[in-house]
Amino acid sequence: MDLQNRSDLPRPWMRGVGAATIALVATLAFQSSADAQVTFASADGIDVDVTYAADVAPIIQKNCTVCHRPGGIGPIDLVDYEDARRYARRIRRQVSNRLMPPYYYDNDIGIQELKHDWRLSQEDINTIVEWVDQGTPLGDPADIPVLNIHDTEDWSLAAEFGPPDIVAPSTPIDVPATGLDMWHRPFVPTFNTSERCIKALQVKPKGASKSVVHHANTTFQILQEDGSFEGSGDRATEYAMGKLGEIIPDGVCRIIPKDAYVRWDIHMYPGGLGASAPKAMLKDNIVELGIWLHPEDYEYEYKQDLALYGLREGQLLMAPHSTTMTQGFRSFDHPVRIDSFQPHGHLRLRSASLEIFYPKTGRTEVISMVSNWSATWHQSHIYEDDVAPLVPTGAVLVMKQWYDNTAGNPNNPDADQWVDGGSRTADEMSHMWIAVTHLDEEGYERMVEEREEKAEIIS
User: Fold this and answer.
1) Is cis: bond before 101, omega within 30 of 0?
2) What is the β-pairing status of strands 302-310 and 252-256?
């Protein structure tokens, strides 16, 4: 079987997408107004009474209160009816334009089956819009579900995996209220006594530091006899503002070495970014890494890694009131599976796409697209196991990002500035974080056949 020529097979992530046309439309989508109004009619033209108690409260409690509550990162509280009524028009605008919850993954391009997907369903959006348009009725208070607010310092992944097996906090550092970008790179022990496979990872800035920690990357290091450290070649994870974490699929292994140390690389922005920025001195700023481990006898077939893939083609330098784009390419000498996709940039990045080009057929597939990206809400888009892209040997990952240094970009602090590539918040960056499972030809062919069989059963 010619595994490099399998682009003719049915792929559940395509959904009939016309790749070239949609990619062009999507790249221009960010130029339209983010405040476009959307109007929804009741289902089938039938008038339906929508109340906060029975219909809206469950949606808000499930999707909004996690951030919008006392001590949360959201700028307003949404814990009861009075909160929701007070901000009703704002809620309607944000959800109808899919600006909240903040998960800016395109709804109609590429793979749509994602783990920990924050996007509201169209039904939920319609319900909220209809409730506001009907005058925000309360309904019967007895219908309001009991609100269970978790501590803001809890691990978000604990609900799925329990408490982490390892917690490796950075050393504390004070972050001033104003000033230039800061970097903090301490080494801390994990106290891990044997080589293990990682199930999941989460980075959690403590307290108010959520808005001052721009990113926090972690790699595993081994302490040498002379007191120096040497990288093991294994990356733990990457964190940027708003990111939930990394979940490794079953049956593969991302390794934490025995007696590993974590080397932190923390970028902080004094004063903070976003609506919840403290604009004040933060003393003893700490960032924690939580690691969930598989049992010692965990069996796996392939290894997974998380790597930075740079987009080096194109010019990142932007004149005032200009736009630009960058792209990068990567192929492998063995088949791989793409497990997650996460664009990275700063305040001028607006759109990003991940595509696969098949040289033997000349066909390109759009895998994922983000057309309304925000620097304050990075997300690792984790594909469901059955649709994670299988990439044959020699196929090419095509990574693209578009930048907008005009006044039309709502995230742009100053369209009169020249912007160059660099590490500061005021600079721009151009890369993607992609988790890859490295396969062999036999495993790749087996996975393709399993998906073909499932597709036949469904059809």
Assistant:
1) yes
2) parallel
- pLDDT, mean of residues 45-61: 86
End-to-end alpha carbon distance in the chain: 24
Q: What is the pTM of this model?
A: 0.84
Q: Mutual orientation of helices 88-96 and 122-133 as an angle, nearest 10°?
A: 150
Q: Which amino acid is at 95?
A: V
Which helix (H) or strand (E) element contains residue 95? helix 88-96
Letter for the amino acid at 37?
Q
Q: Are 317 and 366 in contact (CB under 8 A)?
A: no
* pLDDT at residue 241, rounded to an integer: 85
Measured in whole angstroms, the distance separating CA 160 from the mean position of its chain's CA atoms is 18
Q: By three-state DSSP, how is residue 141 classified?
A: helix
Right CATH for 3-29+303-458 from 3.40.350.10, 2.60.120.230, 1.10.10.10, 3.40.50.300:
2.60.120.230
In this structure, which amino acid lies at residue 176? P
Q: Where are the domains of the chain?
A: 3-29+303-458, 43-143, 158-299
CA distance 16 to 253: 33
CATH of 158-299, one of 3.30.450.20, 3.60.15.10, 2.60.120.230, 3.50.30.10: 2.60.120.230
220-273 tens-digit pLDDT: 999 999 999 999 988 899 998 888 899 999 999 999 999 999 999 999 989 877
Torsion angle, alpha carbons of 223, 287, 266, 383, to 10: 100
Q: Are 293 and 196 in contact (CB under 8 A)?
A: yes
Radius of gyration of the chain (CA): 23
313: phi then psi, degrees, rounded to nearest 5: -90, 135
- Nearby residues of 385 by Cβ (< 8 Å), 6 or more positions away: 249, 250
Token output for 387: 């649709």
